[in-house]
Structures are given as C-alpha cells and as structure tokens.
C-alpha cells in the first residue's frame, strides 16, 4: 500500500520534496509522543515536536477545541471581528516581551518571515537585509533569498540584497577555536566591517538556535552585542522563533532571551507547533513598525477561527503544564544520556542542544568532514528500532536532530536514548 503511494507521490509531486528513508514512511495516526505507520508499526517520535506538533499527538484539549470551532464557523479571518484571533493575539502580545506589541497571524513560518521582511523593508525604506550564514527562513521568493544554508536555497535570484553574517555556528568556521568572549568580539567586528561597506540595511534576521542548520547556537549574548551595533544605525533585529519559541529551549520561553541583556528584538516571528498541528504562524512587532505599511492588507486563512482555537487550547495546555520546565528537565537528562552514548562512537563530533532541541553532529572519525551516509544509516537504524529522529546541518546533512513533543516523559527519553545509542553503534 505504502509502496504504491510512493510511486504515485513520485509521479505527481515535485522531485524537490525530499522524503526521509529509503522506504518512505506513511504515518497514519498518533497519540502522545507516539505515531503509527500504515503497516501498524509504532514509533517514538523524536522529531514531530518541532515540525507540527509541539505538545503531543492527538492532544484531546486541542482536538476538542478544533472540532467544536469547525462545527460552528470558519470564515474570513480579517474582514469581520474574530474573537479567537483577538484572544490569542492578546496572549501572544503579553507573552512576547515586546512593548506595545501588535500581532499579525499567518499560515506558516515562511509567510511570517515574508511579512517581517515586508515590514522591515517598508519601515526602513531599504531592501538590503542581513542574515546569518547557515540559516533557514523559508521557501518563498523572499525567504529563500535570506536563507544562508545553500542546500535549502534553490534559486540564486532574490528580490532582496542579502549580506551574510558570521556567528550562528559556534564550533565551525574561522572563530571556532576562540573562547566565547573573543568569538563574540570577532563576530561583532565582522558585522561592523560589513556595515562599513554597504548601504544601510533594513534588518538582521536570525534564528536564536539554527534549526535546519543543525541545532547550532552562538554563545549567549551574541545577539545582544549585535543589537547594540544595529540600533546605533537604526537597523532592526528580527528573531525567527519558528523553532525556538514557546519554551522549547528549556531555560527561556523565547530563544532570544539567551541574549536579553539589552532588550527584546524589534520583530519576532513564530509558526510550526504552536497550533499543535493546525497552521498557526505570525509576526509580533511594536505598533510603530507593524503599522508602517502604506495601504490596507488582509489574510484569508491567517488566523482563521479554527486555527486560533487550536492555538489558544495548545498555549493554555503548555503553560498550565509547564512544558518549558519539562523541556528543561527532560531535555537536560536526554542530552546527558546522548553524550554518554556518543562517547563510545567515533563518528560523533558533538552533542549539543538546549532543552528539547538536541543535535548530534556526525563526522568522519578524527576529522571535521561531514558524514551524511553515517547520518542516513543512523536514521534508518533508529527507525528499525522504533524511533523517528530528524537530520539537518549545513555541512552535508550530518546532524541528527532530536526534537520530541514537549510533553516527553523521563521514561520515553530513556527509551529513545537507548534506541539512538544502538543506532549510533551500528555505523
Ligand atoms: N524559519 C525557521 C527557523 C524554520 O525552521 C522554518 C521551517 N523549517 C521556517 C522558518 C519556515 O516555516 P514553514 O515551513 O512553516 O513555512
């Protein structure tokens, strides 16, 4: 059945939809932190948490809210007063840490970043943008243009002029050997140098922890140091929190808070799991920035009553159950287990992470060279053992990405770590 579906997939969908696994997986249902495939195999899901389903699969609170709202009304998000949208916007604005915050809802992270670029370029009257090397920001014409990870930037044409900045990757590149303070100073010096050679950019966009790029983060404080340089010149700071928001990094509710010394970003974008499976994305900005567009705008599907109901139910659940605290505690334990497991495996270059966002970077033993075939082997072996993990990284897709739903239990963390350990040993 699944093989037949694969053939039909290949015949009708674009080749650049990169399916995982030699024998692709058809997931048919899920519950909690588990999913099942069409053959009835059960898997512990260590990846879906950062894709669609932040909290848990088939979470009854969200399912009920969605079904009830779908049974009542789904209509234009923005042409009529939309109570669930106003309520979710109020809560998101209050949680954002941005003064005088306004919120605009979209259907995806791509569209959220696109809107952030629209605002920043209009506000600053400049279409030059700074982005980080190895970054990922989406799939639209504008966001592929600011995606520094070349493997995910399928066209060299862009409506924006983009300049790439060092700093998002700590353990590779020219400053890898410096200590944290010197690393930050070197990246700030680079940024200043870049700004000396260019017309004034609108903004710098950055993921506090790079997601698709392989769960790499700079030393705490890098973006605070950047922020000072940017703000002296009137340049905006956009934090792409599509993967890092809502407590996933454990210590902080937003990824940017690891850099909070000098205050919040000017614009924050979010998406992925906040609707726990329903498409909720959005942009948060100070009113002065949000309101800078010259003409009216609308969104048909961004913020529909049904997706907002999902967002409200999911946000309520994750706050009431302190899933940020859970990400910190269970994530801390998981990273310890994975570090211990990796110590026996010569292919592991680094185990890193924050909260429930953990990367296991593989390399050819004794070198810094990527080992994508080893990563592919581990992915297959983990699947055979009943565990789904992701992959990523800007250096040959050599990083295993671990990002379970944020309600992961200690027992599940132990079970998943044991399966991943066996898979790593099979390289
Ligand atoms: N920003 C980041 C940091 C992401 O990881 C992604 C998705 N991988 C996006 C933006 C784009 O989001 P979407 O796929 O919902 O368009």
UniProtKB/TrEMBL annotation:
Keywords: Aminotransferase, Pyridoxal phosphate, Transferase. One of its GO terms (molecular function) is transaminase activity. Pfam families: Aminotran_3. The keyword Transferase applies. Its EC number is 2.6.1.44. Its cofactor is pyridoxal 5'-phosphate. The keyword Transferase applies. InterPro entries: Aminotrans_3, PyrdxlP-dep_Trfase, PyrdxlP-dep_Trfase_major, PyrdxlP-dep_Trfase_small. It comes from the Bacteria. Belongs to the class-III pyridoxal-phosphate-dependent aminotransferase family. PANTHER family: ALANINE--GLYOXYLATE AMINOTRANSFERASE 2, MITOCHONDRIAL, PTHR45688. Homotetramer. This is alanine--glyoxylate transaminase. It comes from Streptomyces violaceorubidus.
């Amino acid at each position: 059945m699944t093989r037949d579906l694969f053939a039909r997939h290949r015949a009708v969908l674009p080749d650049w939809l990169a399916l995982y696994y030699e024998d692709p997986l058809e997931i048919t249902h899920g519950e909690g932190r588990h999913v099942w495939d069409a053959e009835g195999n059960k898997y512990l899901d260590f990846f879906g948490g950062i894709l669609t389903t932040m909290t848990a699969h088939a979470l009854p609170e969200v399912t009920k809210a969605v079904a009830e709202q779908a049974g009542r009304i789904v209509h234009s998000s923005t042409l009529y007063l939309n109570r669930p949208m106003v309520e979710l916007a109020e809560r998101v604005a209050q949680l954002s840490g941005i003064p005088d915050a306004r919120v605009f809802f979209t259907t995806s992270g791509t569209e959220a970043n696109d809107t952030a670029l629209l605002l920043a370029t209009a506000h600053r009257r400049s279409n030059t943008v700074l982005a980080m090397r190895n970054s990922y920001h989406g799939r639209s014409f504008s966001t592929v243009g600011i995606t520094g990870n070349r493997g995910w930037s399928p066209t060299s044409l862009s409506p924006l002029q983009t300049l790439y900045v060092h700093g998002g990757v700590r353990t590779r590149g020219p400053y890898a050997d410096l200590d944290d303070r010197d690393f930050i100073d070197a990246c700030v010096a680079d940024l200043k140098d870049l700004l000396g050679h260019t017309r004034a950019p609108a903004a710098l966009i950055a993921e506090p922890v790079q997601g698709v790029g392989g769960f790499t983060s700079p030393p705490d404080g890098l973006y605070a140091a950047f922020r000072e340089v940017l703000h002296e010149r009137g340049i905006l700071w956009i934090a792409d929190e599509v993967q890092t928001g809502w407590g996933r990094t454990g210590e902080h509710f937003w990824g940017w808070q690891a850099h909070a010394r000098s205050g919040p970003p000017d614009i924050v974008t979010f998406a992925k799991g906040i609707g726990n499976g329903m498409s909720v994305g959005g942009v948060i900005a100070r009113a002065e920035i949000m309101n800078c567009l010259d003409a009216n705008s609308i969104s048909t599907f961004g913020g529909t009553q049904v997706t907002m109901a999902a967002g409200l139910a999911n946000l309520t659940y994750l706050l009431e159950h302190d899933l940020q605290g859970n990400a910190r505690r269970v994530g801390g334990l998981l990273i310890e287990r994975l570090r211990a497991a990796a110590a026996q495996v010569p292919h592991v270059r680094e185990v890193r992470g924050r909260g429930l966002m953990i990367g296991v970077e593989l390399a050819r033993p004794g070198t810094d060279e990527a080992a994508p075939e080893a990563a592919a082997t581990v992915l297959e072996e983990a699947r055979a053992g009943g565990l789904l993990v992701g992959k990523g990284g800007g250096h040959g897709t050599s990083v295993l990405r671990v990002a379970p739903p944020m309600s992961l239990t200690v027992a599940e963390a132990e079970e998943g770590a044991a399966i991943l350990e066996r898979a790593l040993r099979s390289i």
